[in-house]
Amino acid sequence: MKRLVIAMTFIVAPVLRAQSTVAEADSVLARLIPLYGVSGSEAPVREVVKSLLPSWAKPEVDTAGNVWLRVGSGGAPVVYVAHMDEIGFKVSAILDDGSLQLDRQGGFFESLFEGQPALVHTPKGDVPGVFPTRDSIPRDPRELRHQPPLGRVEGDPLRSTLRVDVGTTSRAATEALGVTVGSTVTMPKSYQRLAGSRATGRSFDDRVGDAALILAVRHLDRSKLTHQVIFLWSTREEIGLEGARAAAHALGTAPARVYAIDTFVSSDAPLDPKNFADQPIGQGAVVRGLDNSSVTPPSLVDSVLTIATARHVPIQVGTTNGGNDGSMFVPFGVPDVALGWPLRYSHSPAEVIDLKDVASLADIVQATAEVR
Amino acid sequence: MHSSRAAVAAIVLSVAVTASLPSQSLDSLTLRFAGFTTVSGYEQPVMDSLLALLPGATRDRLGDVSVTLGSGAPRRLVSCPIDEAGYAVGGITADGYLTLHREGRITNPLFEQQLEGHRVIVFGASGPLPGVVGVRSVHLTRGRAANETPFTADDAYVDIGATSAGEAASLGVRMLSPVALEKRPHRYGDGVAAPAVGRHAACAALAAALLSHPKVMGSLVASFTVQGLQGGNPGLGSVTALQGPFADTLTATLIVKYRETAAETVVLSDVQALERRIVQWIGGAK
C-alpha cells in the first residue's frame, strides 16, 4: 500500500491543472437547482446535465434514464456516479373533492411540507397548489405531541397523510388542469446565495454531485488517461438506487472501482448530535468512509487522501448515515469509494452548502480520474 | 453584495417603495400587498410605501398611517390592522446563528412549524438578508429516538451563512432585526397563498377603495394600523385617541383558508367583494 501511495504521489504531483472555482460551481448549481426531478421524472435534469457538458462530450442515455459519458480507453473502467433525482411525492389518486392523494418518493420529514405551497408537475406544465394542514389541529400545542406523526398510514409505507389542494372542488376540474395519477409533486424552490461562499436551496442532494461531475469533466486532461473513465448521472436513487442498479448490472465485474459522488450528511448544525458526521461545511470534500450501505476499503481511503494532498485539494474523512449508488456495484466485486461534500439540513427545503466544498469535490473527482 | 442577494433585496424593496398606482387592478395590488412583511411593531418600511401610495396620508407617533376624506358629521373610521406575527433577533451565537424572539399574538399551534427548514428574510441594518431556519438532518435521525415535540421558535437557529457573530454583525444583523418567512405570493385556483395574506389582502382592499375616490358620507378616517397583534391593540387605540371619537367603525377583514401558515389563502373574488363593501360603507350604506 505504501508503495502504491508513493507511486500515486509521484504521478500526480507534477500534474497541477486548472481547478474548479467557487464561481464556476455557483454558475452550474444555479442552473441545476431550480429544476424539478422527483425520482422517475428526471428528464428536465437530464437535459440540462447534457447541455452543461463540454462540446467534445458525447453522452448517451440508457433505458433506465441514466446519462453515460465514456472518456478514454484501455484497462478496467473507473466509474463515477451521482444521482439526478430528488425527494418528493407522486399523485396516487385524485379524490372526489379535487384534492390529490400522495405517495412519498424518498425519506423526509413531511411536516416540512404541511401548510406550504405546492407544485404538481404535469406534461402541460406546473400546476400550483398548496399542502393543506392536517384536518384537526388542537388548540393546545402540547396535544400535537400525542398525534400520530404526519405521513404514516397503517399498512402502506409509501402513502402520505398529506394532500394537495389545487384550488378545485371536483375530480374533473383537477383532471382538466392536466393532473393525472403518477404526476409528481414538490414545492417551489430556488437557488439562493448566503453570506460568503455559502448557498441554500432544495435538492443539493445530489445536484452538487451532478455539478461536481460536470466540473470534473470540463477540467479533465483526457490526454493523461490510460484507462476508460465512465461518468454516470443516475436515476431513482432516492427510492432504492434503481438507476445505479441497472448500470451496475450492465457493467458487471468490469469496473476497477466505483466512486459514488453523493451527499455527506453533516452534523455541523445546531440541532444534530455530533458524535459522528461532524465534518464542517467549508472545510472541503469528504471521503465518506462508512455509511449505511457500504464500507470504503481503507486502502482506497488512503489513496484518495494521498492524491488530495498531492493536488492541494482540501479533504476530510468521516462517517455518516444514508446509502449510496456505488453500493450497487459491490456485489459484482467492485470496490465502492464514496466521496461527498458536507451538507446541512438534509432533505429539507433549506439545505445549506459551502461552494468551496463543491469545488473541492470536483477537484478530487478530476484528480482521481486522471491517475490510474 | 452577491447578485443573487441583490435580487432578494430588489424583491423586498420593490414592495417597500411602491409608487402611486391608482389604475392598478385590485388583483395585482393584492399580490403586491401579499409580498409585504410587517412584523408586529416593525411595520415602518411598509408604512413608508403606504404614505407614498395614498395622497394626503399622514403618520402618527406609533406609525399608523391614516387618510381623512370628506368633512362634517358623522365622523367614522374604517381601518385594517396591517401587522403580522413574526420574530425579532433575540441573540447571535458565537458561530453566527441568530436566535429568535416571537412578536405578535398567534393562535395556530402549527405556526412555528412553518419556520422549521424554511427560508426567512432578516431585515438587517444594511438591507434584507436571506437565511434559513435549521432542521435536523433526516438521515441523522436514523436509529435514534424520535423527537416528536412540535417545533417552536425556541428551537430556531437562523443560518445566514455567517461563521461568527462578528460576520453576522458586519452583514448588518443587529439585536431586534425583524425576521419573517420569505414572502413569495403563490397563485393557485382563484386564490393567492402567502404568510399573513388575509391581513395584507384586506389592507389592499381598503387601499383600492380609497384610490377609487369614493363618495363619502360625512367625514371618514381610513387607517392602516400597526401593532394589532400586540396586547390591547395599541395602533387602533392611538388612532381612536388622536382622531376619534367615531360614530361608527368598520374593520376590513377577510375569511382565509389554512390560517397562520405559509399557505394562508384568500380568494381574490372575496377581496374584490370586500373592496366594494368598503366603498359602499364609506358612502353611507349599512
Features:
heterodimer; A: 372 residues; alpha/beta; eight-stranded mixed β-sheet; six-stranded antiparallel β-sheet; 25% helix; 24% strand; globular; disordered N terminus; B: 286 residues; alpha+beta; Aminopeptidase; Elongation Factor Tu (Ef-tu), domain 3; five-stranded mixed β-sheet; 7 helices
Overview in brief:
The complex is a heterodimer of chains A (372) and B (286). By secondary structure, chain A is an alpha/beta fold.
Kindly describe this structure.
The complex is a heterodimer of chains A (372) and B (286). Chain A is of the alpha/beta class. Chain A folds into two domains: 2-86 and 202-370, 3-Layer(aba) Sandwich (Aminopeptidase); 88-186, Peptidase M42, domain 2 (Elongation Factor Tu (Ef-tu), domain 3). Chain A has eight helices and 19 strands. In chain A, strand 1 and strand 2 form a beta hairpin. In chain A, helix 2 (22-32) packs across helix 5 (204-219), helix 2 (22-32) crosses helix 8 (355-370) and helix 5 crosses helix 8 (355-370). The two termini of chain A are 14 Å apart. Chain B is α+β, with helices and mostly antiparallel strands and 286 residues long. Chain B has two domains: 21-84 and 185-282, Aminopeptidase, CATH 3.40.630.10; 86-181, Beta Barrel (Elongation Factor Tu (Ef-tu), domain 3). Helix content of chain B is 28%, strand content 23%. In chain B, the strands form three sheets. In chain B, strands 5-4-9-6-7-8 form a six-stranded antiparallel beta sheet, with helices on one face. In chain B, strands 1-2-12-3-13 form a five-stranded mixed beta sheet, sandwiched between helices. In chain B, strands 10-11-14 form a three-stranded antiparallel beta sheet. In chain B, a hairpin with a 5-residue loop joins strand 4 (86-92) and strand 5 (98-103). Chain B starts with a helix and ends with a helix. Mean pLDDT of chain B is 91; it is low at 1-23. The chains are: A alpha/beta (372), B alpha+beta (286).
